[in-house]
């Protein structure tokens, strides 16, 4: 699986020491993870390890062994079940010691706190700002649903009997708002029914539409869908680029120095430019190019 992962078009790969590893296999897993991180053949993905949470007896050894052996090849540590800022700060301090002990650049390795229970969601602002190493807030839906006693066994789907909206909306928006407040990424967690790709797409579309930056994939077949869903649609990217061009032109002296202008049937102003910038930046990050069918700004209306 690790060899295969090296060539997959995912933005990030995380190697797990937590819930996917049986307790008696933890020690061996640390060695294998460290070796895999340091091997050749990765194709530019962000490399991350998920350690065990601080309520176990494993976190300290996970960090000391993996960062000690392979810290130069590690971009971030994914910290599960974070209940408050102290868990992030403890990891920050330990990382700093291990980095110093091994001559690594201090502070380079990031932290990705996983929000997986009610207390973590309650303390999310403090968690997001607990350390400059925090880069990403990650939703852990399976643990979260268990922690709030939601009556479901299918993660990512609405609980049976609930027909009044999206049972996840409050949690997702709270994570997203905290991420945007503190300038970090918001990442949705896994969809566990890996053979149901339509359902994976629906689940990914829900968080992509809200503004999340990405979603975990558990199987290679989910990658293409995730990459597509979290990139803007081509027509939206083209429209965003057109708005940016038109707005630039019409606010310039040559274009009449106007603040609000019509683009076709739509009035655009500074706020439209900001919305367009978001779509354009996501599209560019995904390697999108503008198609030739767009109208140049001079002809786009006044
Ligand atoms: C992931 O760790 C989850 O609990 O959903
Ligand atoms: Mg979990």
Describe the structure.
- With 302 residues, this protein is an alpha/beta fold.
- It has two domains: 2-229, TIM Barrel (Alpha-Beta Barrel); 234-299, no CATH class.
- Helices cover 44% and strands 12% of the residues.
- It has twelve helices and nine strands.
- Strand 1, helix 2 (26-38) and strand 2 (46-50) form a beta-alpha-beta unit.
Instruction: Enter the CATH topology name of the largest domain.
Output: TIM Barrel
The CATH class label of the largest domain is Alpha Beta
Bound molecules: glyoxylic acid, magnesium ion
N to C succession of SSEs: HEHEHEHEHHEHHEHEHHEEH
Please bin the fraction of helical residues. Answer: 40-55%
CATH architecture of the largest domain: Alpha-Beta Barrel
How many structurally independent domains? Answer: 2
Count of alpha and pi helical runs: 12
Principal-axes geometry comes out as globular
Q: Which strand order does the major sheet show?
A: 1-2-3-4-5-6-7
Structural class: alpha/beta
Please report the total strand number as a whole number. 9
| Biggest pleated-sheet summary | 7 strands, parallel
User: How far apart lie the N and C ends?
Assistant: 56 Å
Question: What would you say about this model in short?
Answer:
GO terms for molecular function: lyase activity; magnesium ion binding. The protein has 302 residues and is an alpha/beta fold. The chain contains twelve helices and nine strands.
Keywords:
two-stranded antiparallel sheet, lyase activity, 12% strand, binds magnesium ion, Citrate lyase subunit beta / citryl-CoA lyase, seven-stranded parallel β-sheet, magnesium ion binding, TIM Barrel, single chain, 302 residues, Pyrv/PenolPyrv_kinase-like_dom, alpha/beta, 44% helix, binds glyoxylic acid
């Amino acid at each position: 699986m690790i060899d295969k992962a090296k060539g997959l078009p995912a933005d990030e790969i995380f190697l797990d020491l937590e819930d996917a590893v049986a307790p008696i296999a933890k020690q061996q897993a640390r060695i294998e993870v460290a070796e895999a991180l340091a091997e050749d053949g990765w194709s530019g993905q962000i490399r991350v390890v998920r350690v065990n949470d601080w309520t176990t007896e494993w976190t300290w050894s996970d960090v000391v062994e993996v960062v000690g052996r392979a810290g130069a090849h590690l971009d971030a540590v994914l910290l599960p079940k974070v209940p408050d800022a102290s868990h992030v700060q403890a990891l920050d301090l330990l990382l700093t010691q291990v980095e110093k002990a091994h001559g690594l650049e201090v502070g380079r390795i990031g932290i990705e706190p996983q929000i997986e229970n009610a207390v973590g969601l309650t303390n999310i602002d403090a968690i997001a700002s607990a350390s400059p190493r925090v880069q990403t807030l990650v939703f852990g839906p399976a643990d979260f649903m268990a922690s709030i006693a939601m009556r479901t066994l299918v993660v990512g789907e609405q609980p049976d009997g609930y027909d009044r909206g999206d049972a996840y909306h409050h949690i997702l928006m709270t994570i997203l708002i905290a991420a945007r407040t503190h300038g970090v990424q918001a990442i949705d967690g896994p969809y566990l029914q890996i053979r149901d790709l339509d359902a994976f797409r629906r689940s990914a579309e829900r968080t992509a539409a809200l503004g999340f930056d990405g979603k975990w994939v558990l199987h290679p077949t989910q990658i293409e869908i995730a990459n597509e869903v979290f990139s803007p649609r081509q027509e939206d990217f083209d429209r965003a680029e057109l708005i940016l061009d038109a707005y630039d032109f019409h606010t310039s002296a040559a274009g009449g120095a106007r603040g609000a202008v019509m683009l076709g049937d739509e009035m655009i102003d500074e706020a439209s430019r900001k919305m367009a910038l978001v779509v354009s930046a996501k599209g560019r990050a995904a390697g999108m190019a503008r198609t030739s069918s767009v109208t140049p700004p001079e002809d786009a209306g006044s």
